[in-house]
Write a structure and sequence with these properties.
two-stranded antiparallel sheet; 4 strands; alpha+beta; flat
Amino acid sequence: MRCRTTPAPSPARTCRPTPPPVPERGPAPTPISNPGLASIDAALNPNSTDYYYYALGTDGKHHFSTTLAEHNAFVNSSSYGG
């Protein structure tokens, strides 16, 4: 049981049952992250590309670069949204 002192200048306390912190509850009842078959297949069989860098743009899309210089130019531009 957790108790909380009220902000009023009285000594009144409000106590109510609350769930214990996560470590005391044990493991989650279901998987927290359960990838689908398409995700597993993509991880096991990635596409072959020359892209090594990516950054989020102000347009909400990811922009991919093949060289660090190209990536840095994008990150230092006004299009970078990160």
